[in-house]
Amino acid sequence: MSASFSCNAFKPGNNPDNLHFIRQEKSQWRDHTDYTFTPDEKAEATILFGGLTLLQDKLIASALHSLGERYVAIPNPDFESFRLGKAFGNRGQCNPTYFNVGNLIKHLQTLQKEKGLSSEEIIKKYLFVTAGGCGPCRFGMYITEYRKALRDAGFEGFRIMSFEHNKGIFQALGDQSAINFSPTFFITLAKAVIIGDIINLLGYKMRPYELEKGATDKAIEQCREIISKAFIHKKNLIKAMYKCRKVLKTVALNRLRPKPKVMIIGEFWAAMTEGDGNYNLHRFLEEEGAECIPQPLINRLMLSIWEAEFTLNQTLDIEKPGQKKIDFSNLKNKLLVNAAKVALKTHFTLYSKAIGLYDFTLPDIQKLADLSKAYYPIESSGGEGHMEVAHLIESAKENLAHLVISVKPFGCMPSSCVSDGIQSLVAGRFPSANFLAIETSGEGAANFYSRVQMALFKAKQAAKEEFESLDMPAFIPPKVHCYLYQPKTGKAGSAANIVQSIAPKRL
Q: Does 501 map to a domain?
């Protein structure tokens, strides 16, 4: 429901006491879904997108450019984006909505100022593509919120096109005839996302130990250029990743400094974004002396595949009157789901081995479901499903991190109301777990940082004690300072893992 208000202008000669507010008639907001994007319009149109990590947005733009598509990533959301989102959006939305909706409005307003474009020209020459879908939280309302806020900001009719986030290559195109939601489009998109995940993971492993501040980021930028050129010129991506290995090897590291390892989980966008949306949590932790374990986007893709497979198996268990003994439609769906899972795993493995990411394995979602099902109803598919609870249990059982932070928008229903309620029980059952659940509201950074620092203090003590409990060998082989050396010995800290791996074997 939206209401408009206006005030009659003060005119000379009028008595100021007679000024009053006139309330206009209320009107129900109705979303119009008949937006079209025809092939004739495509030649002059620019397709905007954004919302993933900075590296992934840039790689996606290059990858889709190789298909002849004119995609442009909009800048990362900041607090000004948040302010605009709250100004033009409905009350009660969560932070990802405010930040991303406001970020699009901010970008369109920038086009007006810098290029001198009118609202009508922007509406004609630009459109925005994002993921949509249904769910138990406000994610299903994002598209409508975009359109409502754009109308109120003066861009009524601006086209917001969406694809179903959980349907992958099996999209119903409808009237979006000029949007290339083909299997080739999504396969290329997936490759860019996977490569971005891999390089980001290596960046978080290397940056806390670099001898020259900023050297890792410079190397990653060089890797981005190599991969972007490979996409644009349709070169072999595995060879391009191997070239990146040589670039990353030039970064000098000291990996024998004990640092607490912090696993970051939680609501997808809040845990992934690299900016004001989560108060720059990853960089803040690194500045405080920690090493981050981020949750890559491919984890979310693997969860979506598991959910599709889980739902399909439940459907197969239901007997229907007159059902054939072999339902070939269900068999086809199961084969397609398995093919998607194999394709993601294969591409991730090939690219990660080429660049030298050896110690990261894709999550076994069924294993995580088995870990969490005693605490969390795995039939519930809201938000990150059982993953948040499972990650905490896995971290405690397998000693993966000194601290687990679950970050989410203020009032996120699946994450705050469901997962966090269960996490208190999990933390009670696993007292060794150092767990912090924390919300972002767009304001209140001081409180956010204070709580993180208190939990991090305990993690630093644990990392120091773990490292000092080991005997330092007399000889340290130079290979341990190369990022390619990634031992696993059951220790949480990277430095402790390295020392344990080169320690003399006791008889």
A: yes
Give the count of beta carbons closer than 10 Å to the beta carbon of residue 28: 6
Report yes or no on 98 lying in a domain. Answer: yes
Which residues contact residue 449 at a Cβ distance below 8 angstroms, ignoring those fewer than 6 apart?
A: 279, 284
- Residue range 34-62, pLDDT digits in tens: 677 888 888 889 999 998 999 999 999 99
Both tokens assigned to 328: 């070939």
Extended strands (E) in 294-450: 403-409, 435-440
Compute the distance between CA of residue 146 and CA of residue 385 in angstroms, rounded to an integer: 25
Q: Who wins on pLDDT, 160 or 4?
A: 160
Q: Are residues 491 and 415 in the same domain?
A: no
Is residue 504 one of the residues assigned to a domain?
yes
Poorest-pLDDT segment among 2-11, 234-243, 323-332: 2-11
Q: How would you list the strands of the sheet with 126-132, edge to edge?
A: 71-73, 46-49, 126-132, 159-164
Q: What is the b/e burial string over 312-346, where b = at least 16 CB atoms within 10 angstroms of the residue's CB?
A: eeeeeeeeeeeeeeeeeeeeebbeebeebbeebee
Residues 447 and 483 in one domain: no
Instruction: Identify whether residues 375 and 440 lie together within a single domain.
Output: yes
Tokens (6 digits) for 253: 């590291």
Question: Are residues 47 and 72 in contact, defined by beta-carbon separation less than 8 angstroms?
Answer: yes
Estimate to the nearest angstrom the gap between the alpha carbon of 384 and the chain centroid.
11
What pLDDT does residue 382 have?
A: 74
How many domains does the chain divide into?
3
Question: 64 exposed, middle or buried (CB, 10 Å; 0-12, 13-18, 19+)?
Answer: buried
- Contact between 155 and 146 under an 8 Å Cβ cutoff? The reply is no
Which residue in this structure is represented by tokens 């059951």?
A: 490
Query: In which domain, by residue range, is 315 found?
Result: 276-356+365-468
Helix axes 54-65, 183-206, angle to 10 degrees: 150
Q: Where are the beta strands (DSSP E) in 165-290?
A: 261-266
Residues 424 and 483 both lie in one domain: no
